[in-house]
Every structure is written in structure tokens, then in C-alpha cells.
Design goal:
449 residues, Four Helix Bundle (Hemerythrin (Met), subunit A), 3 domains, four-stranded mixed β-sheet, three-stranded antiparallel β-sheet, 12 helices
Length: 449
């Protein structure tokens, strides 16, 4: 239902940087279609995560976003279908399933697909008109608005995948290998000497960045000891068997209330059968021995409780930034491993695999301080509440709530990337965030002592 030929690009009058963005956007659309194709016909209105809209919403949301941002927002042109541009305008992020709004009646799939295809065609055709506005509109300069549309599309690939992981897809995409299983490397505390680190970036030095990435801030970090590798499922099992989910001392009052309301006794994707444990994955439920080496995927609240039980705490955003990109001589690296593009030996990101891999599988990604897997294999939980950097400006005027809507004290920064994170987000300035009680993200964590 969602397959079709890619729109023809009519962008010959656009500058080279915009033409490259259009190529990237076309590739992103092809991946979107491949992900939607994983759904069986009757699953479109399923809601595997109560805090998210059903799959059918995202089929319409992705094109509606592009139309609202670029055609209507930057060019001031009429949209394609005003009713769709309103219906599919925004997703939801309630703190509790009780706050989820009632679903509207969804249009027929054929109408949504036709709308999507027309929006895509018009977005490509609009490139010369966007370029013509480059001197008078910062969202047109350098094709910035195409960055907005492209990165939004790529972000939702990860959303779709962790929703799919809740229901299991019926067939694997062509070329996807079975998951890599087995034991992982146990993390050992290493000392990271203090120093200055930089959070965020500089708008005049990079092609694009979201509003929460600016302006760059220099932050002083004290010496700290941190796990060299993320916590594995095998290590988390010790916490479970020791009664960590019931030890009140390791949970904040708010996290304890959430845990009790959710009747949480195990990580969200775990199932116990007698003394045996099983873990639900995008490839179906697997025996614990198969995934014991994978990084432990938990909500931030559960990760914080484990860290307390282990005699430590979760790291701050600044500590992970310093551990990843800092060096003993104070000169920052572009990537934890130094320079050069990500490879399968450096990080598990950008769909190198369609699942986590055992911790320790990317030894070439080691940072200058001997800390591994700071990028890839899972978004890394931090203790840092998501908040604006000093001097913050919601500079994407067509999308002023991108970050600001989440400066509510209920979301924490997550660091790095997961296996389903596009490589575009592996820039040093990128910042991401999730609710503390949200267990669905492809995440990982480690402990600071």
C-alpha cells in the first residue's frame, strides 16, 4: 500500500548543496516506505505504544510535516490538503496513557498515500523557489528547511522501529541479517581526568543544527570514574535477582510511584518463566542467553535505580560529552575514535545491524580516555534534565516548539545514538531527549562512581 516510484526531482536550478539534500531526502523516503512495508495490512490502526499515535498517523504525519514546514511555512504557498495538514500536524507525548487524546477517524490509506506522493513531488519541485529566497530567509539559505524536513523524517524511522519492536514485524527487510548474539564485555571503571568540554555547536561553522544545539557552551568537568562499557543484560540480571526493583532506597519518590503504578517487576521487554528469562526483540522473543551481552534497555528511572544499587549514579551530559570527545591534551575530537567515518568496528549505528550487538563489539570506537561505545548501540541515559542552553533561540520559526515544548522538567538528555539512528545525527553538537519513564527507546546506560 505504501510502495511506489520515487518522485522525479526538478531541481536543476537549485545549488549543489540543495541538490544533495534532495537526494538524501529521496533516500529517506525510500527507507520510510520500506519500514511501513513491514506492517501487515491489518496493523495500520494498531497502537503498540499507548503514548504514541497508531502507525497510520505517521504515514500522514511525515508528508504533512514537510508541507507545513516548507511549502506553507517558508514559501507561503497553499498546502496540498488543508484537512490532512491539520489532522497529521503533530504527534503526542503525554506523561501518562490516561492523558492520551481520543483518536479521530482516520482517512482511507489510499488517500493518505496519494497525499504523500503529491507532497513529495511538490517538495522536490520547490527547490528552485527555496533557493531564490536564500538571501532573505535563513530557512532558505543553504537549504536549511530541507535539513529540517530530512532530519525529521529520519528521526521518525527510529520511532517507527521501536513501535514495530513492540509488535514484532512479520518478515525481515531484504538483506537484514539475524541478530548478533552472545556474551558481552564487562565494563570496568576507568578514570576520566577533568577538563573543559563543549556542549552544542556553532551555527556559523556547521551546515545545520536544531535550536537546542546552540549556542555552544564551555563546561568544566571534574575528574570522574565511569564504566568503560555499557551495562549488559547479564549485569542487569543480577540487579533483578537481588530484588533491585523492590529496594525502595534506590528509587526516587516519583520513580517509585511510577514503578508501582506500572506494576513493574522486570524490564519492560523481559519475561520470566520460572527461573528462565526471555527478552522481546524486533526479531521476536529470544532466550536470555542469546542477548545477555546486549546493552540493557531500560527507562531512565530504572537505569538510575540500577546505578544507585551499583554504588554510583548516572553520568551527566557534560561527563559523557567529555568522555566521548575530550583528549588528555584538551583538543577535542570530532568522533570518539578521532576522525574518519563511522564503520561497523567503530559503532553500531546507521542500520549496520537491525538490533543491538553484544557490548564490546566495536573496539575501534574507543575514546581517548578508554571509554567504549559512547556512540551507537543505544542512546545513553544521563542525569541531565533537558533544558535550553544559555542564549537559546527557537530559530526555526516554522517549528518553534521543536525543543521548547519539552523544557518541562520531565525529559532527560540521552546521548550518542542507537543502531537505528541515522549517521547524520552523529555530529558532536546533536542533543536528544526522552521522558524519564519511557522504556521503549533503543537505549543503554553506564554508571559513574
Amino acid at each position: 500500500m505504501t510502495s511506489g516510484s520515487s518522485p522525479t526531482c526538478c531541481s536543476c536550478a537549485a545549488p549543489t548543496d540543495v541538490r544533495r539534500l534532495l537526494d538524501a531526502l529521496t533516500a529517506a523516503w525510500q527507507r520510510s516506505d520500506a519500514l511501513f512495508a513491514l506492517l501487515p495490512p491489518g496493523a495500520w490502526t494498531e497502537r503498540p505504544i499507548a503514548l504514541r499515535q497508531p502507525f497510520v498517523f505517521y504515514l500522514g504525519h511525515l508528508p504533512a510535516f514537510g508541507c507545513n514546514q516548507l511549502l506553507r511555512g517558508v514559501l507561503g504557498e497553499p498546502g496540498v490538503r488543508a484537512d490532512f495538514e491539520l489532522l497529521f500536524e503533530r504527534g503526542i507525548d503525554p506523561l501518562d496513557a490516561a492523558d492520551v487524546p481520543a483518536e479521530p477517524p482516520w482517512p482511507p490509506l489510499a488517500e493518505i498515500v496519494a497525499y504523500r506522493d503529491e507532497v513529495r513531488r511538490r517538495l522536490l519541485d520547490a527547490a528552485p523557489r527555496v533557493s531564490a529566497r536564500a538571501r532573505q530567509d535563513e530557512l532558505a539559505a543553504g537549504g536549511a528547511i530541507y535539513h529540517v524536513v530530512l532530519e525529521h523524517e529520519l528521526m521518525h524511522h527510529e520511532t517507527l522501529l521501536y513501535m514495530l519492536a513492540e509488535r514484532r514485524w512479520d518478515a525481515l527487510p531484504a538483506g537484514v541479517e539475524p541478530p548478533v548474539t552472545g556474551a558481552g564485555v564487562p565494563g570496568l571503571p576507568v578514570t576520566v581526568p577533568g577538563g573543559q568540554t563543549e556542549i552544542g555547536g556553532h551555527r556559523d561553522r556547521q551546515p545545520f543544527g536544531w535550536d537546542n544545539e546552540f549556542p555552544a557552551q564551555r563546561v568544566e568537568v571534574d575528574d570522574f570514574r565511569i564504566d568503560s562499557h555499557p551495562v549488559t543484560n547479564a549485569r542487569l540480571l543480577r540487579f533483578v535477582r537481588a530484588g533491585g526493583y523492590r529496594e525502595e532506597a534506590h528509587w526516587t519518590p516519583a520513580d517509585r510511584a511510577w514503578r508501582d503504578a506500572a506494576q513493574l517487576e522486570l524490564p519492560h521487554r523481559w519475561r520470566a518463566e520460572g527461573d528462565e528469562y526471555f527478552v522481546r526483540t524486533p526479531f521476536g522473543e529470544l532466550p536470555f542467553a542469546a542477548v545477555e551481552g546486549w546493552p540493557a534497555q531500560l527507562s531512565q528511572a530504572e537505569a538510575a535505580a540500577f546505578a544507585s544499587w551499583a554504588g554510583g549514579r548516572l553520568p551527566t551530559e557534560a561527563e559523557l560529552q567529555h568522555a566521548a570527545y575530550g583528549t588528555p591534551d584538551g583538543s577535542p575530537r570530532e568522533q570518539p575514535w578521532g576522525s574518519g567515518r563511522p564503520t561497523a568496528r567503530r559503532c553500531n549505528a546507521g542500520f549496520v545491524h537491525w538490533s543491538p550487538v553484544p557490548v564490546g563489539s566495536t573496539p575501534a570506537g574507543e575514546s581517548a580516555f578508554g571509554v567504549h561505545e559512547l556512540v551507537g548501540n543505544g542512546w545513553e541515559h544521563t542525569s541531565t534534565v533537558f533544558a535550553p542552553l544559555p542564549g537559546f533561540e527557537a530559530w526555526v520559526r516554522t517549528y518553534p516548539g521543536y525543543s521548547a515544548d519539552f523544557f518541562d522538567g520531565e525529559h532527560n538528555v540521552v546521548f550518542g545514538a542507537s543502531w537505528a539512528t541515522d549517521l547524520r545525527f552523529l555530529r558532536r553538537s546533536f542533543r536528544n531527549w526522552y521522558q524519564r519513564h519511557y522504556p521503549y527507546v533503543f537505549s543503554k546506560f553506564r554508571v559513574v562512581y
